[in-house]
Amino acid sequence: MLDFGFDKIALIGAVALIVIGPEKLPRVARTVGTLLGKAQRYVADVKAEVNRSMELEELQKMKSQFQTAVNDVEQSVRQEVDSATQALNQTWSDVADDGSAADFGSLQTPAPEYRHPKKNWRLKRGATPLWFKQKAGVRRHTQSGAARVARFRHPGIR
Fold this sequence. Notes:
By secondary structure, the protein is mainly alpha-helical. The chain contains 5 helices and no strands. The protein has helices at residues 6-20, 25-98, 101-107, 130-136, 145-152. It is flat. This is Sec-independent protein translocase protein TatB.
């Protein structure tokens, strides 16, 4: 960009004072400042847009590299699983051909039946002992407000 020193700016100001005149110089200086500010903002916006497009291209390249790596890993895993499945099927068919598969059927136990646990879900079983709850003053039963007032009311007052 252009490099302006103090001497160049002073020379431009002196020429502008002679050509434009002292009455119009402040208004022209404001206008020139506004135009320079707009130009700088425009240049900054263009630089930012170029940087964003470069970053977007880099991200797209990284995405494509990552996608190819994922595809390679997926293919290798799929090949390993297929080879293991084939080996297992081959072994199973070899065992079934030997006739020893009938021995495996006799060793299998039947599936267990479901039995209800016979727990009373209404009964809360806490880990804290009852004597500790009584000592600490923990309420074990809920009471309505009227029952609580009646419980703690002095016996002489009705």
